[in-house]
Every structure is written in C-alpha cells, then in structure tokens.
Write a structure and sequence with these properties.
The structure holds two protein chains of two kinds. Chain A has helices at about 30-40, 45-50, 95-100; strands spanning about 5, 15-20, 20-30, 60-65, 70-75, 105. By secondary structure, chain A is an alpha+beta fold. Chain A has a single domain (about 5-105), classed as Alpha-Beta Plaits (2-Layer Sandwich), CATH 3.30.70. In chain A, a hairpin with a 2-residue loop joins strand 2 (about 15-20) and strand 3. Chain A is elongated and about 50 Å long. The relative contact order of chain B is 0.14. By secondary structure, chain B is of the alpha+beta class. Helices cover about 30% and strands about 25% of the residues of chain B. Chain B folds into two domains: about 5-115 and about 155-310, no CATH class; about 320-435, 2-Layer Sandwich (Alpha-Beta Plaits), CATH 3.30.70. Classes of the chains: A alpha+beta, B alpha+beta. The interface between A and B is large, with 41 and 51 residues. Chain B: Pfam families: AtuA. Chain B: InterPro entries: AtuA_N.
C-alpha cells in the first residue's frame, strides 16, 4: 500500500452546466472507497483554488453519499452568464472536464475499484 | 398498478426531430413532451418577435407538427411543448395552419397557455410592492429597468393539467419550468394533488428533470466510458415509465442508439442543480439526497427515493436586458512558433486599440487550441510545437461602432504582422449581449393572468 498521485480523470465521472452566472460541477465516484478519498481531497477550497482565474465568487460543495456524488456550485463563474459573456465556453459545459486535471493523493489499493 | 409512458421529444430549440419521430412511432408512449427553451432561448425569440410580431415562437414547431400531428391522430398520443416561447398564440396559429395543410385532423384539440409574459406588468408589480431585486446578489432593479427586453415567469404544471382536463391533444405553452411539461400528464392521469402529494410530485419533477435535456440522459455528453456508447448517430431520446406511486423506469425506444444506465442517469441527475436537498420548482421543492438508481435491465434504470416539500409561494421571473455589444475576430498562425506569433499579434492589436483611443470595458484574448475552453487553469500543454493556433480577440462595449472597429484592425496584420497568418474568418458583425435578471414574484400575482384556451381543428 502506497499513496500515489492521480488526476481525477482516471477516477471519476463529472458533468457541468450553467444557470445565470453560476456553474455547477457534479462529480461521481465509482465506489465508496474512492468517494471517501474525494471527500477528503476534493474540497470546496481546492476547487476554488483550481479555478482561481475563472471563478470570481464562492464555491460551495454539497454531498450525496448515497450516490457517491458531490456537487460544486461556483458563483460568478461565466463572466456574466451565457448570453452576456465574452468567454468561448459560455455555457460552462467544459468546467467538469477542466476539473479532471486536478491531482489527488490516493491509496494504490483503492485504485482497483476506480474507473481505470 | 397503472403506468404512463412519457417520451422526451426535444432538449432545446434546434434539437434533432428524428428521435422524437422514432419515439412516437415505436416508443409506445402516451405523451411526448418537448422542452424547447434553454435559458437563452427567449432572448433569441424576443429578437424574432421584434422583427416580426407574428414570430417569437420556436420556428421548428412547423416541422415538428408536420411530422408528428399525423402520429398524434393515429396513435392517440398527446404532445406538450413550450415552443410557444415569446408568442404562444403565434405558435397556436402556426400549428393550426400546419394541421389544415395536412388535412384529416378535424376534431384535434389544441390548447394554449398564456400568462408567463409579464413584461407589460413590471410597473404594476413595483406598484404592488414587489422589489424585483436580483435573487442571487440583491442588485436593485432600477439599474436595468430601462433596458429590459423581455420578462417571463416560470409557470408550473397546473395550467397544462387544466388543458389536458379540457381534452387537449396538444398543449402549447410559453415559459414554464422544464419539469412541469413532464409532470403535468402524471397529475392529470393519476389525480395527484398539487398542493399535497409532495412525495409524488417530487418523483414527477425528478423524472422531468432527467428527461428535459433529451439525449443528455441517454448517452449524450457522457463523461464516463463515452467511447463504449453505441450509435450516437441514431440516439434514442429517453422514455420514462411512471407508476401511479411515482416510481419510474428510465429507458428509450427499442433499436435506437445511445445508452441508459445508472452512470448516464446520475450525470443528468445533478445537471444544473445547486443545493441537491432543495431544488426549487413552481410545483414542489425537490430533495435529491436519497435518490436511488438501479440497473434493472439493458437500457433500463429504476429511479426511486426523491422527496419533496411544499412548493414556494413565489414564481421565478427571468428577464433579459441589453448589456452592451460584443465585437470579435478570429484568425490563425502556423508553426513554427505559432503561439509566439499569436501573442505578438495580440500585443499589436492592443497597442493599436490604445492608440486609437477605443474604450472597451473588457478585452479578452483566447488562444484556440491552447486555452480557449479551459482558460489559464493549471500548467498549459507544451505550446512550442503546436502546428497552429487560432487567436480570438473579443471586446465588450456599450458602443456598437466601437465593437465593429475591432475587426478592422485585423486584416492589415496579414501583410504587416507576424509571419504565416491564415484563416482570417472575416470581420464579425457586432452581437448584442444580453444580461439575465432573475427575481421572485408572489405566486398569486402571476396566477391572476394565466389563461388556458382550447381550440379545435375544423
């Protein structure tokens, strides 16, 4: 057993969408073990830090343990919102993909149950 | 126990009609519900109505009705759509026109719901003491009052239920909450109580939420094992089999492509949701935190466990206001040093903007292929060896002419800028930007104006 660094892309599913100037990113772990690691590693603060150049408002995390899911709600994240922004990803659909770059520390024995 | 089969016909204005036809023909559905309105759609339709007062509805309603009205008649299914957009009565007239053109549809009942358009009433709202302050940041409405171009309330399922009660085969609405389109048939068929059966309504709204984005729950935009999803070119839109007790199964028509699995359903479950324990709709406040999903067969997922709390005493109203102009230009540079060339071009343009005294509130540069979707988050991929990079410069300004001037700075770079510039896409016309204003208005004030009218094809 050893801690290894892994990008979220190898561990989870995620989808993002917009509402006004807010983006939500839902993240789903494939198992309870991976979910426990996500709860520890992928905090609202880390997500806010990851997107510091893109999200001007607060980031809030909601959890749904039954689905091994967490939902990040990022305020002031679209430069004004879909029809008012200069950004190319004006509907925030690429936010989830972007978060997949985040690296977390995970026990290598848990990886067996993960996505790939 | 009785079961109603509901199909999703569309996820936005411009979506493919083919899966809806497939569902109508082979999906054995009782209802087919079309969500034509994304948050931005009313802004587009409002521009149409300004140009021509007869327009302002989702214009693909013509082709939709042409394809589906004969199936409505032959199969006895019902259509519900919010394609009325900014002009539900115009959409009704267009549907009647198509029905006459097709012929043989006498007796078909078409209902129209109005009352969501509250633009003419904003002053009276203020007079009644409704603040209209922005619901997210509390901004004062006075800041945008003179620039409002449309204002619509998200109505709930009740007027659609009323239309069905009056025997409508087709229901056309303007802005209603997306999930209301799908919930209404359940209330009508099962006799659920709109101010009481919060658990049942919660399951119904959850079903609607899963269905409203069409292919996004049946294998589209899927971040999981997307390579293994088969035949997206022939994707089947979702069908929900809903029991009288609210439990439902998500599936799709036999023989279609795509995938309905726990993995695809859960991605849609939280799509555009904020607090999962309190998703506000006009019909119920939905709590998703105990939802359970189960694969019960190929392309069959059972959904249980939504719970609900009493609906809010307010309706959400969304308005659009003029928010300046976007000017933009896009062009490319070739290897070697494509990124360095693009950065130099950006520097030149910004210097010229300054020298010309053009005042932009915001100037944005994107290097397409490098950071235009992901911004400057984390380390950039190695930029040096990119074969090409496209540079996009966009500006925001209150002055249309100033927006247009940006594009004129670009063509000279072909001869007088960094080497190997290609693919100049022309000077793009300035586009008007629209701000969105969301606020809450007491339910009873909105409800006074809601009307349901049923007409018969003669």
């Amino acid at each position: 057993m050893a801690l290894v660094r892994k990008q979220l892309r190898h561990l989870v599913q995620a989808r993002s969408g917009d509402k006004g100037n807010t983006v939500n990113i839902a993240v789903f772990a494939p198992s309870a073990e991976v979910y426990a690691v996500l709860l520890r590693e992928v905090t609202a603060e880390r997500v806010k830090g990851h997107f510091q150049s893109m999200v001007n408002g607060e980031v809030k995390r909601y959890v749904l343990p039954g689905l091994h899911a967490m939902n990040f709600v990022c305020k002031e994240a679209l430069g004004g919102g879909g029809s008012a922004t200069l950004r190319m990803d004006n509907l925030g659909k690429c936010y989830a993909a972007n978060l997949m770059r985040l690296e977390i520390e995970i026990d290598d024995t848990i990886l067996v149950s993960a996505k790939s | 126990m009785r079961t109603i089969r509901i199909g999703a016909g569309q996820g936005f204005y411009g979506d493919s009609i083919i899966p809806a036809i497939e569902t109508a023909r082979n999906g054995n559905v009782d209802y087919l519900c079309f969500d034509s309105l994304a948050e931005l759609t009313l802004a587009i339709l409002q521009k149409d109505r300004q140009r021509d007062p007869a327009r302002g509805y989702a214009s693909d309603i013509s082709s939709t009705m042409r394809e589906l009205l004969p199936l409505v008649k032959a199969k006895g299914l019902k259509l519900i759509t919010n394609a009325g957009g900014m002009n539900p009565l115009g959409a009704l007239r267009e549907t009647e026109r198509v029905a006459h053109e097709l012929g043989g549809l006498q007796g078909l009942k078409i209902a129209v719901v109005t009352g969501d358009d509250v633009l003419p009433k904003l002053t009276s709202f203020t007079a009644e003491g409704v603040s209209l302050a922005h619901m997210e940041d509390g901004r004062d409405f006075a800041a945008v009052q003179n620039r409002i171009s449309f204002a619509n309330a998200y109505l709930g399922a009740e007027p659609i239920v009323e239309a069905l009660r009056q025997g409508a085969d087709i229901v056309i609405t303007g802005r209603v909450s997306d999930s209301a389109l799908f919930l209404a048939p359940l209330i009508h068929e099962f006799g659920w109580h709109v101010e009481q059966d919060w658990e049942l309504l919660a399951q119904g709204v959850l079903m609607g939420h899963l269905m409203e984005c069409s292919g996004q729950v049946s294998g589209g935009n899927f971040s999981g094992d997307w390579q293994s999803v088969e035949s997206l070119e022939n994707i089947g839109f979702p069908i929900a089999e809903v029991r009288e007790d609210g439990e439902f199964v998500m599936t799709k028509a036999e023989g279609t492509g795509g995938l309905v699995s726990v993995a695809t359903v859960k991605e849609q479950l939280l799509y555009e949701i904020h607090d999962p324990s309190s998703y506000m709709t006009p019909d119920v406040v939905l709590d998703l935190t105990n939802v359970q999903l189960q694969d019960i067969g190929p392309n069959r997922v059972s959904v249980t466990g939504a719970s609900g709390a009493a609906r809010p005493e307010t309706f959400k109203v969304v308005m659009g206001y003029a928010d300046g102009w976007l000017g933009q230009a896009i062009w490319g540079y070739s290897w070697p040093d494509a990124v360095a060339k693009a950065k130099e071009a950006d520097r030149i343009i910004r210097k010229q903007i300054e020298a010309l005294g053009l005042h932009y509130e915001e100037i944005r540069t994107d290097y397409m292929g490098l950071n235009s979707l992901h911004g400057s988050v984390l380390a950039q991929p190695p930029a040096e060896e990119l074969n090409e990079v496209y540079l996009r410069i966009a500006v925001r300004t209150n002055n249309r002419d100033a927006a247009a001037k940006l594009g004129r700075l670009v063509p000279p770079l072909m001869l007088s800028g960094p080497p190997a510039m290609g693919a100049f896409l022309g000077v793009m016309k300035p586009r008007e930007l629209l701000g969105m204003w969301s606020c809450l208005v007491p339910r009873e004030i909105i409800e006074r104006s809601i009307r349901v009218t049923v007409t018969e094809v003669v």
